[in-house]
Design goal:
Elements (H helix, E strand, L loop, with lengths): L6 E5 L1 H10 L6 H10 L4 E5 L9 H10 L4 E5 L3 H10 L3 E4 L19 H13 L3 E6 L3 H10 L3 E5 L1 H9 L4 H19 L3 E5 L7 H5 L4 E6 L1 H10 L1 H24 L1
Parallel strand pairs: 1-2, 1-8, 2-3, 3-4, 4-5, 5-6, 6-7, 7-8
This protein binds pyridoxine-5'-phosphate (PXP).
Length: 257
């Protein structure tokens, strides 16, 4: 049965990007996290990159200490990040691929070929009591590999769907990419994985993804921080929350009708 409540994780990385453009403390990503909580977020997501281009170590310290919402730490599978995760024990850790030269996380983790490299990280994080998720492409082989690795959660990369939508909203390519997400989310549920999704989602693209019944959580950042420039962060998050809730309410209405 479709969970009525689709969780929203607000990614605050780009509040830190703006802060870092000038140095200093403003705008403060921890303040953004507090506002996100008031606006209906269910969790805070932050990616501590190797090059610290946005979130810094001190932000993770403060998020872990000062924010009541569950923290989802996005991290590369490296010894340095593992030590930080074990120290802070966030609610969840999402393992992501990371390349220094990329502008953003361009694709999912290669969990099929990279199994033996990723396995010790999953084992140690799970052993520490952290809920591990793997950021993957919406592909059956990657989902099966996630199960083999012992990860309880996967996050499907929605970037290709969002890019296709930007090229032609509702066009054939966007529909094809959406179908890949739908099939992957169905397979995830069938093999016992909790399924999340994210990357590039906006007011225009969130609806069809929120309608996928077996997706439990969406993680959204860049669009919300960008939209905050025009409407304010709280208003942007509230609107995203409302769009997600509307889709879930409609699918429940249809089922009980
Ligand atoms: N999920 C994961 C695993 C990510 O790496 C990112 C980007 O950091 C997001 C979700 C959020 O993507 P966006 O900022 O494009 O909404």
């Amino acid at each position: 049965m479709t969970p009525r409540h689709l969780r929203l994780g607000v990614n605050i990385d780009h509040v830190a990007t703006i802060r870092n453009a000038r140095g200093g403390r403003h705008p403060d990503p921890v303040r953004a996290a507090r506002l996100a909580a008031q606006a209906g977020a269910d969790g805070i997501t932050a990616h501590l990159r190797e090059d610290r281009r946005h979130i810094a170590d001190d932000d993770i310290d403060r998020l872990a200490r000062e924010i009541d919402l569950p923290l989802n730490l996005e991290m590369a599978a490296t010894k340095e990040m593992l030590a930080i995760a074990v120290k802070h024990r966030p609610h969840a850790a999402c393992l992501v691929p990371e390349k220094r030269e990329e502008r953003t996380t361009e694709g999912g983790l290669d969990v099929v070929r990279g199994q033996s490299a990723i396995r010790p990280f999953v084992r140690e994080l799970v052993g520490t009591g952290i809920r591990v998720s793997l950021f993957i492409e919406p592909e059956r082989a990657a989902l099966d590999a996630a199960v083999a690795l012992g990860a309880p959660v996967v996050e499907l990369h929605t970037g290709a769907y969002c890019e296709a939508w930007a090229e032609e909203p509702g066009g054939a390519k966007a529909r094809r990419e959406l179908k890949r997400l739908e099939d992957a989310a169905a397979h995830a549920a069938a093999i016992g994985l909790e399924c999340h999704a994210g990357h590039g989602l906006s007011f225009d693209t969130v609806g069809p993804v929120a309608a996928i019944p077996t997706i439990a959580e969406l993680n959204i950042g860049h669009f919300l921080v960008g939209e905050a420039i025009f409407s304010g962060l709280e208003s942007a998050i509230r609107r995203m929350r409302a769009l997600m809730d509307k889709v879930r309410a409609e699918s429940h209405g249809q089922k009980s009708a």
